[in-house]
Design a protein that fits this description.
The protein is α+β, with helices and mostly antiparallel strands. 33% of the residues lie in helices and 13% in strands. It has 4 helices and 2 strands; from the N terminus they run βαααβα. The two termini are 15 Å apart.
């Protein structure tokens, strides 16, 4: 669980790996291979994404469903869920 920090939608298309990684570093302030969850996959696999997001304050929550969490926090509105 965490908080959405940044969303990068202006991802350059059809650029060399170095250019995309430089743009990634410029937007997020971090190296592609150090923070990208799929960095161990091929460049083509990760470069096919048309958006990237950053989450801050990330921490695991064991044995708690989303429904239970919302109930415990008295949140009655539907959650915003982002999937990439």
């Amino acid at each position: 669980m965490g908080n959405l920090d940044k969303v990068w939608l202006a991802v350059p298309e059809d650029v060399a790996a170095g250019e995309l990684q430089d743009a990634f570093r410029g937007f997020f302030g971090a190296e592609w291979a150090e923070v990208l969850d799929a960095a161990d996959k091929s460049y083509a696999y990760s470069a096919a994404n048309n958006a990237y997001l950053a989450v801050r304050d990330l921490h695991p929550v064991d044995n708690l469903t989303l429904e239970q969490f919302l109930e415990a926090k008295a949140i009655s509105r539907p959650p915003n869920i982002i999937v990439s």
